[in-house]
């Protein structure tokens, strides 16, 4: 892997003007736009439409596609699209389809009043989550295949910058539009309708970028390609069957989990954290097991040839273990734990700011708007440093800074609603997060093989957030048990094993 050592700063800055790098700014914007249109923005729309809180929270499930996108990533890697693949190529064809699906889903939401038809809004939100996650899969694969490894950090930092700007437009921008269109106050469906129409129009940034950029040049003799059109159709049917079984078992199992948890807590009232972690984890594993059994049944019944299934799912995993051999588990641990310190703290950060006495305007202006600028600057800095000094060194620096800046929250916890201190903490925390994020995306990109780019990167990026999100779901319980000061100390300590994993992984890379 090229480290970039010896490159002067002027050459590093000039690399940001590379058209391939600049394209990632617009692709990042296109990728960042859909997410908040499902989460915070849609939640406010639903509450204004007098939808009850419990139903509003159910809509967060519409974004589950982002956590399980590795399941259909092989389709993106292998399935040719009628007309689009011949016209634009494998990656850009899929990218245009995903972006048009995002636009269609946003317009569907725009022309659906949740006060009148909540079920149609739910279907539209699910389509937006699925389409947005598919767009992420293709953009990640395009980024990895379109440029050499030494440019990946710069492309990652530019992508992160665009992603954050897209989230800002979909979040704060949408709310300002909704206020402007509904100037007289109260709930006005037309205000939200025009807001979402504007968001659909803004997605044209991604569409134009897709039409203007070049298709990545990949060896046409790449391994693992299907041999007949019927293979694609059958595999798609099997995929839909497995997804249906997973969704049904996961969501229908919610009531059963709640009942078992209630009985558990009635017997052992002090074990809410353990009960939730075990039961929710078991629910997820059971749903995945049933989906796998459904896929195996489909193979046994002749719906899909076993060879196709092996090439699609097993071969990309086997390829990774063949290339990394004894270090494979070490690398997977690093991928799964690198963001744990940041994500666990970030989930409860807004609640912490409110508890410290900061008002909503201060939280929005400092932690969101100012924090966004610091994250983007950190991403650019991380890209330049990675290009100049190499991925592993900056990966280590990012992990060290992420853990260390969590300790600054201890000062904030004892200092109260001190705006100057909050700005200091946000500056340090978001700069380090942006730096670490750029280096980490470059590292993940280097782990993939060109034959399985979409699936392997989707697998790594899903693994990246799985453990942190599972732990983060209990951050409130931990704060109730230990208090904010000990909780922040714990999040910093969680980052220490990551430093050891990076050291060991870099030793392996040097040995290779």
Molecular structure report:
- The structure is a single chain.
- With about 500 residues, the chain is mostly helical.
- The chain folds into three domains: about 220 residues, Up-down Bundle (Growth Hormone, Chain: A), CATH 1.20.1250; about 80 residues; about 200 residues, Growth Hormone, Chain: A, CATH 1.20.1250.20.
- The N terminus is likely disordered.
- The protein starts with 8 loop residues before the first helix and ends with a helix.
- Helices cover about 80% and strands about 0% of the residues.
What are the SSEs and their pairings?
Blueprint: H1 9-15, H2 19-38, H3 40-48, H4 53-58, H5 73-78, H6 84-88, H7 90-110, H8 118-146, H9 152-181, H10 189-202, H11 204-212, H12 229-267, H13 272-300, H14 306-324, H15 328-337, H16 340-356, H17 360-389, H18 391-406, H19 408-415, H20 419-447, H21 453-472, H22 475-482, H23 484-494, H24 496-511
Helix pairs in contact: 2-8, 2-9, 2-11, 7-8, 7-10, 7-11, 8-21, 9-10, 9-17, 9-20, 12-13, 15-21, 15-24, 16-21, 16-23, 17-18, 17-20, 18-20, 18-23, 18-24, 19-20, 19-23, 22-23
């Amino acid at each position: 892997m090229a480290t970039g050592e010896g490159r002067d700063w002027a050459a590093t800055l000039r690399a940001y003007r590379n058209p391939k790098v600049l394209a990632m700014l617009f692709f990042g914007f296109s990728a960042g736009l859909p997410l908040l249109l499902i989460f915070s923005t849609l939640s406010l729309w639903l509450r204004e439409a007098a939808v009850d809180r419990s139903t509003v929270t159910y809509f967060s499930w519409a974004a589950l596609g982002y956590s399980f996108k590795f399941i259909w990533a092989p389709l993106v890697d292998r399935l040719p699209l009628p007309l689009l693949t011949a016209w634009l190529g494998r990656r850009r064809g899929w990218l245009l389809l995903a972006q048009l699906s995002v636009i269609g889903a946003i317009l569907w939401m725009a022309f659906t009043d949740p006060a009148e038809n909540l079920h149609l809004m739910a279907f539209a939100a699910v389509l937006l989550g699925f389409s947005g996650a598919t767009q992420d899969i293709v953009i990640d694969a395009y980024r990895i295949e379109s440029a050499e490894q030494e440019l990946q950090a710069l492309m990652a930092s530019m992508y992160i910058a665009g992603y954050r700007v897209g989230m800002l437009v979909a979040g704060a921008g949408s709310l300002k539009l909704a206020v402007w269109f509904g100037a007289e106050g109260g709930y006005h469906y037309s205000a939200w309708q025009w807001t979402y129409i504007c968001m659909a129009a803004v997605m044209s940034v991604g569409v134009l970028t897709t039409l203007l950029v070049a298709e990545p040049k990949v060896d046409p003799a790449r391994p693992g390609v299907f041999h007949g059109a019927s293979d694609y159709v059958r595999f798609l049917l099997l995929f839909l069957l497995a997804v249906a079984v997973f969704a049904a078992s996961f969501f229908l199992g919610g009531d059963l989990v709640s009942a078992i948890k209630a009985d558990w807590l009635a017997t052992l009232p002090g074990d809410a954290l353990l009960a939730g972690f075990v039961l929710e984890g078991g629910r997820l594993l059971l749903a995945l097991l049933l989906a796998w059994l459904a896929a195996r049944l489909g193979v046994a019944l002749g719906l899909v040839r076993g060879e196709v299934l092996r090439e699609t799912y097993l071969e990309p995993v086997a390829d990774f273990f063949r290339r990394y051999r004894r270090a494979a588990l070490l690398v997977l641990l690093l991928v799964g734990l690198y963001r744990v310190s940041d994500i666990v703290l970030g989930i409860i950060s807004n609640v912490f700011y409110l508890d410290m006495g900061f008002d909503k305007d201060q939280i929005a202006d400092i932690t969101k708007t100012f924090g966004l600028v610091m994250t983007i600057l950190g991403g650019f800095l991380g890209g330049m440093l990675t290009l100049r000094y190499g991925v592993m060194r900056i990966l280590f620096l990012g992990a060290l800074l992420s853990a260390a800046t969590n300790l600054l929250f201890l000062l904030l916890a004892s200092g109260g609603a001190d705006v100057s201190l909050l700005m200091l903490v946000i500056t340090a925390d978001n700069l380090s997060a942006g730096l670490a994020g750029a280096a980490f995306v470059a590292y993940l990109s280097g782990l993939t093989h060109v034959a399985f780019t979409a699936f392997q990167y989707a697998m790594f990026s899903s693994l990246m957030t799985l453990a942190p999100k599972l732990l983060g779901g209990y951050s409130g319980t931990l704060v109730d048990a230990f208090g904010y000061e000990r909780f922040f100390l714990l999040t910093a300590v969680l980052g220490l094993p990551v430093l050891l994993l990076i050291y060991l992984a870099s030793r392996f890379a040097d040995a290779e």
